[in-house]
Every structure is written in C-alpha cells, then in structure tokens.
C-alpha cells in the first residue's frame, strides 16, 4: 500500500498534495526553537510558529530551514516535514512516495540534501522535479511538444526564469533573492525614512497591501513599530511611494535575468516566446503593476497565472496522475 504525495518545498510555505485528493496542507515553512548554547528545543511548527513572530522571549528563535532555495538545516527541515506528514494521519503501514519540487539549477549535492531530508522525515521514495516546470504545468501550459513556454517564478527565497519545451528546460536561471529578502529591504527602508523599526512579517504585510509598481499609486497602511530613539511603540502610515524604490530594484534585477535568458535562446524559440509572452507564477507575481512593468520593459505580453500562488503544487499534483509525462520530464531533468 502506497500513499502518493506531491510536496512543494517553498521558502515561504510547504504545500502537500495527495493524489486523487488535492492540496491537503499548506503551512508556513517556519520552525520555532527555544534554548541557548546550542541546546535548542522545538516548540512550534508552521502556522503555530508564525503566530509567535514578534511575541517571543529573547531565547526563542523563529526561522525557516530553507534559505535561497537550499536546505540550511536537514535536522530542522526533516522535523518540520515529519510534523506535517503526521498531521495528514497517513496509515503507518503505508509507504510514502513523494514528488518534491526544487529550484532549477541547484547542484547535485544540494539535490541529495533534499532527498536525504525527505528520507529523514519518513518518506520512502523521493523524486525531484524543478518547481518552475511544475508551475508551468499547474498553470495549464503545454510543455510536451515543440510549443514553448516562458515562465518567471517569484518565490519567497529565489526568483527563477526559464524557457520550457519538449518537457525540459531549454534555458533558465535563478536569482538568489525573493520575497523574504524583499521584506527585509522594505523594513530597512522604513527604518531609514521614519526611524521606526517594523518586523519582517509586518514588512511582508506592507508589501502585500500597499506594494505597487505604479508611480502614482496612493495605497497606504497604518502599521505599528518601535521608535529607534525612544524605544517606544509608534504607529506610522506607510504609502506605496515609500517602498516603491525597493520593489523597482528587485524587479530590475529580475529583468536582467529575463533578458539574459532570452538572449541565450535560438531565434526559432525566441519567435515563439515573443508571440505567447511571459507567464508569471508564485506568490510574488501578484505584486500590483508587476506584469505591466515587465511587459513594458521586454516589449511582449506578460500575464499572471490564474493559479499564481499554488501553481507549483497544483502542477506537481497533476503530474502524479500522468506518469507518462512525469517520466518524460524526469528523464530530461534527472529527477
């Protein structure tokens, strides 16, 4: 008896899809530990760890075991994944077979770390697939034949760009900068402008609610922070214009990656791309004005996937029921 799963190991969230059931879990990729002198005890996982952000004592640390697409702690990530699997109440006699999404272009050594982490969590059989391919499949793009898909994935830890066809990556690249790093940059910008410290989680909320690439956007949000000088609580109003420069810096770096990827493609593929345009996936792709900003810069259509936030896990889940296409992809990418 086997339980067949797809697992999206994102920097921000871990999502699990059960074959013939759909998405059965999506929780923050966060773990909370307490202690000192390397003697740490896990006190919370996922949603419960997120609730503790900004509300803990000095001896409590909340972090993600994945950073910039790479596993930084097998011990903690396997514990987190094991906890999530236990929440699914899988029959203990059932062997777990998992298709796990990973960033494109990581080393074979980094892939081995993902595999070993899954084994440590109790998974019996592991197959790895580039998350950007899964994102294309989850968005309904056909990558089986000679039609070409051009995808940009805006994740929490990395941003990826790839050209796909014939069930493989023709050209692609990764920027080791994503939504989490952008949140830190936003918090820094607010501290410099208003002399008020806001948490990274608050900065993420600011990005989601008032972040915009439109120059004249008037969105605003009141947030709580701590005055740098007085150390007292202080409320401030953050406007879109206050953080726009940080958004532009990030997106301009992504544009460089997009242009480099395009320049490496053969002319025939470039012609297909120009006609169909660029598809955006990932939670970060919902940034207000992003598609229009990129479209103007690269002079081609640019659209956000209808399933942007969950495209990767939905695509991996879809492939669980299409063994022929999955095998073709894995044969090409070495998963």
UniProtKB/TrEMBL annotation:
A GO MF label: ATP binding
Any GO BP: cell morphogenesis
Claim: ATP-binding is one of the keywords in the record: yes
Location relative to the cell: Cytoplasm
A GO cellular-component term linked to this record: cytoplasm
Iron found in the keyword field: no
UniProt KW keywords: ATP-binding, Cell shape, Cytoplasm, Nucleotide-binding
InterPro entries referenced in this protein's UniProt entry, alphabetically: ATPase_NBD, MreB, MreB_MamK-like
Primary residence: cytoplasm
Sequence similarity: Belongs to the FtsA/MreB family.
Protein name (Swiss-Prot/TrEMBL): Rod shape-determining protein
Organism listed in the record: Candidatus Caccopulliclostridium gallistercoris
């Amino acid at each position: 008896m086997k339980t067949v799963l797809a697992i999206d190991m994102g920097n921000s969230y871990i999502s699990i899809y059960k074959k013939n059931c759909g998405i059965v879990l999506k929780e923050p990729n966060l773990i909370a530990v307490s202690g000192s002198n390397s003697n740490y005890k896990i006190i919370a996982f996922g949603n419960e760890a997120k609730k503790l952000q900004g509300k803990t004592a000095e001896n409590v640390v909340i972090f993600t075991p994945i950073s910039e697409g790479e596993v930084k702690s097998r011990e903690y990530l396997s514990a987190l994944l094991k906890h999530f699997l236990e929440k699914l109440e899988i029959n203990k006699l059932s062997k777990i077979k998992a298709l796990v999404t990973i960033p494109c272009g990581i080393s074979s050594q980094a892939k081995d770390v993902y595999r070993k982490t899954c084994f440590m969590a109790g998974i019996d059989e592991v197959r790895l697939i580039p998350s950007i391919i899964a994102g294309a499949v989850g968005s309904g793009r056909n990558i089986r034949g000679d039609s070409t898909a051009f995808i940009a994935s805006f994740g929490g830890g990395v941003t990826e760009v790839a050209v796909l066809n014939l069930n493989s990556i023709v050209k692609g690249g990764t920027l080791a900068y994503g939504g989490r790093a952008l949140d830190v940059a936003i918090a820094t910008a607010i501290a410099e402008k208003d002399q008020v410290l806001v948490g990274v989680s608050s900065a993420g909320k600011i990005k989601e609610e008032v972040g915009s690439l439109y120059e004249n956007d008037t969105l605003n949000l009141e947030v709580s922070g701590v005055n740098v000088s007085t150390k007292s609580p202080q409320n401030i109003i953050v406007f879109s214009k206050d953080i726009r420069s940080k958004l532009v810096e990030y997106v301009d770096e992504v544009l460089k990656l997009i242009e480099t990827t395009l320049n490496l493609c053969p002319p025939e593929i470039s012609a297909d791309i120009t006609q169909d345009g660029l598809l955006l996936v990932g939670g970060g792709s919902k940034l207000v004005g992003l598609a229009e900003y990129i479209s103007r810069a690269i002079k081609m259509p640019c659209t956000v996937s209808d399933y942007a936030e969950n495209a990767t896990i939905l695509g991996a889940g879809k492939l669980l029921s299409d063994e022929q296409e999955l095998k073709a992809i894995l044969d090409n990418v070495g998963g």
